[in-house]
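Next up, a specimen:

>
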Amino acid sequence: MLAGELLAMLAVAAIWCVETPLRRLTRPFTRPSLAPSGGRPVIFVHGFMLTPWSMGLLARRVRRAGHGPVLFLDYRPALGAIDGFAGQLARLLTRVAPDGPVDIVAHSMGGLIAARCMGDHPGRVRRLVAVGTPFHGTVAPGPAISRSIPQMRPDSGFLRETLMAAGFAGHGGVTCILSRADRVVVPYPTARLEWAANVELDGLGHNALLFSGRVAQAVCAALAEKKGRHPECG
C-alpha cells in the first residue's frame, strides 16, 4: 500500500512538473480532450494543487469504455477559493453542453468544486462520481496556503452550505468512491454521503486512487445507465 501510494505521488509529481510550464502558455479554459464521440460529455475535475492530466489515465479508461467525449476543467489560480472554481466549472458546462446535463468525475477537492456548482446550478449535472472527496472536511489539509484549505476543514461553514444546497443534497446521481487507506481525507469516512451511493475500497492511498483499475471499474459502473454495463473498463 505504501509503495503504491509512493509511486502514485511520484507519477503525479512528474505530471505536474511537465504540465505546469505548458499551462502557462495556454488560456485557463483550454480543454484537452481524448478521442471525441457523440455521447454525453464527461468532465474531469482534478484535486488541490494537481493538474488536469493527473486524471489522464482514469479518463482514458473511461473513454475506452465508451463514455464521453472526455473533457477537463483547467481551473485557476491554483490557490483560489472553491466557489470561484465552481463558477469556472459552470461556465464550462454552458460552453460544452448548453442544452443538456453532463457527467462529472472528480478527485479530492474537485468533488467539492462539482458539488458547489451543482448547488448553484441545479439540473446541469446528471451524475457526479467523486473519488476521495472530503465532503465533511479533513483534519489533514495542511497550513492555510490557499483560500480553499480553510474551506475543507471539518468546521467549515462553506462545507455545510454546500452540502445543504437544494441542487446537491439528495441528488440521485452521486457516487462516492473512498479508500480506508486514504491519509489525506482524514478520517476516511468523511468522503461518504449518507444519501449517495458509496463504494468503499481498501489498500489505496489518496493519489493511488487515480491509477487504480478498481476505481476505474467503479467509475464506469456509476456513469453507466445501468450498473455493470461496462465490465471491461479498467
